[in-house]
Amino acid sequence: MEIINSVKELKAKVAALRDNSKTVGLVPTMGALHAGHASLVKRSVRENHATIVSVFVNPTQFNDKKDLEAYPRTLFADCKLLQSLGADYVFAPSVEEVYPEPDTRSFSYPPTDTVMEGAFRPGHFNGVCQIVSKLFMFVEPDRAYFGEKDFQQIAVIRAMVADYTKRGEEWAKRLEIRPCPIIREEDGLALSSRNTLLAPNERDIAPNIYKALKDSVAFSKTHTVEETKQMTIQQINAVEGLEVQYYDIVNAITLESVTSWDDAEHIQGCITVFCGAKPIRLIDNINYK
Question: Domain containing 44 — which CATH number?
């Protein structure tokens, strides 16, 4: 496995792979890797001749400077894990390498990027699109892998790729976005790099988020969408140390809120919860149909 720090070297490695008719998988990450990331890498290794994993804490998608500073950075451990998983290249650039000058590009794909996380974290998805589009242009992968824990992010990235496809970008026409299932701890907590920031008592209460989501699926069979929302929020807020920032039940494709279980063929519940005194912001989601 090779560690690459420059865009120029990355493009040279990809060009050599293309010259030999090799398929390339890309796994974009911000590091602090866990079993959820590992599942993405394993799938890419299975499905492509070469796998590139980016490890880059992207500053443009943080609208809270403290959140950016607190984000865990564990490059040495990440590289050790990636080597064991069979990744071929790790792209670990500096901020200056990725953004030699400010990125002033603006992306807008409503409603996918304006609801839920888009409403509560202004500018977040614009930053996501900035970095992910750069990575796609650097690598021009055949397939890119994203975890479904970030359910809304996948919808936004799909919209961005469709936009670039309409513009005639060849890399976008070829690219396949591969969503991968949420990986959970035994107690149900969705794996997240942010989990490492939880104090022991906070880690103990965090699984109540998924418990409430699971309970809500059974509850939904005999109750309305609004009743299901309120039950879920109340159950989580009843746990000392947990506070729901938002919970919405949406069309899984458009991310628009639904008011009836008949409003869409596929329906997803998406939640963000503050956990602990700091607090740590945890996201999760669940499928209703």
Answer: 3.40.50.620
171-195 pLDDT per residue, tens: 999 999 999 999 999 999 999 989 9
158 residue type, one letter:
R
Tens of pLDDT, residue by residue over 109-149, are: 999 999 999 999 999 999 999 999 999 999 999 999 999 99
Nearest alpha-carbon partner for 254 in 190, 158, 136? 158
Among 133, 159, 180, the domain boundary falls at 180
The enclosing H or E element of 243 equals strand 242-251
Whether 34 is a known active-site residue: answer: no
Instruction: Please state the φ and ψ torsions of residue 11, each to the nearest 5 degrees.
Output: -65, -35
Report the distance separating Cα 73 and Cα 93, nearest Å.
Answer: 13
Work out the angle at residue 98's Cα, subtended by the Cα atoms of residues 95 and 103, and round it to the nearest 5 degrees. 100
Model-level pTM? 0.95
Which two tokens mark 212? 């409430």
Q: Are strands 50-55 and 2-4 parallel, antiparallel or unpaired?
A: unpaired
Annotated catalytic residue, options 34, 37, 124, 223: 37
Q: Are residues 44 and 118 in the same domain?
A: yes
